[in-house]
Amino acid sequence: EPRSPCCCLAWTLLIAAINSLLFLLNLLLMFVIFTIVLLPTIVVVYFGFQCHSQVLHSSARYCKSVLDDNSSSALIILGFVIMSPLLVVAMAIYCSLARRLQLLVCFQPYSLALYKGGRWCCARGCHTPLRAWV
């Protein structure tokens, strides 16, 4: 049976808030995973750019004694080369974790706001089988 307009608006706002919260949780999880996995690339590229004379040319001791322009360029190139496989690893970790935690199943349809008697279906509370194909 359809809900009243005020009740429909309240349920719509509640469902939108829950979906937004789940979206932010997924975004935070993705940010943390990508930051941790891509940390070697970030560090290598940072030191490469920091010590190159054409970019920042830091006066740090390791820039003067260990890294010259050629080695700084090599670090920059190495950082960008190892970024591609690390992106694939980070995405695989995120997808595996999101599937294991069933985070993408928790998004609620807005049809719950329109009609009474709809069931909340999140992760283990839903009795329908989870399939990745249609």
From TrEMBL:
Segments crossing the lipid bilayer: 21-49, 74-94
Its membrane topology: Multi-pass membrane protein
Domain of life from the UniProt record: Eukaryota
Annotated compartments: Membrane
N-terminal signal peptide: none
GO molecular function: PDZ domain binding
Major location category of this protein: membrane
Keywords associated with the record: Membrane, Transmembrane, Transmembrane helix
Cellular component terms (Gene Ontology): plasma membrane
Family: Belongs to the TMEM88 family.
Protein name: TMM88 protein
Organism the protein comes from: Drymodes brunneopygia
Upper taxonomic lineage: Eukaryota, Metazoa, Chordata, Craniata, Vertebrata
